[in-house]
Specification:
Length: about 110
């Protein structure tokens, strides 16, 4: 027996009205990823600075001595570098790209 109702998969990169796929170039995707990392570093700057200070003070024993600060830094960075956050940046980039293409088409 098959499904009686077909489930529709949602693709965030397809414009539902025109059914056109709006994709990013590899360079645009990499720019989104760099932007994601930069935003995470800014939001977690205090935790990063704490770890950097600890690692400068304890060169040889940094792995053992700064374990807690490294974990706190990584937890903070993981919070802001999720796939969901990256997808939000990509969708925003696609919207800007679509607006530019639409504006060019009108002129």
């Amino acid at each position: 027996m098959g499904k009686t109702q077909q489930s529709e998969l949602s693709n965030p990169f397809v414009n539902r009205e025109t059914q056109q796929l709006h994709a990013l170039t590899r360079a645009e995707e990499e720019a989104c990823f760099k932007d994601l990392k930069q935003r995470a570093l800014v939001k977690c700057s205090e935790a990063v600075q704490d770890f950097v200070k600890c690692s400068q003070d304890h060169n040889v024993t940094v792995v053992i001595t700064c374990r807690g600060k490294a974990r706190a830094m990584n937890d903070c960075l993981k919070q802001y570098t999720t796939q969901e956050e990256l997808d939000k940046l990509k969708l925003a980039k696609i919207e800007r790209k679509t607006e530019i293409l639409t504006a060019r088409a009108r002129t």
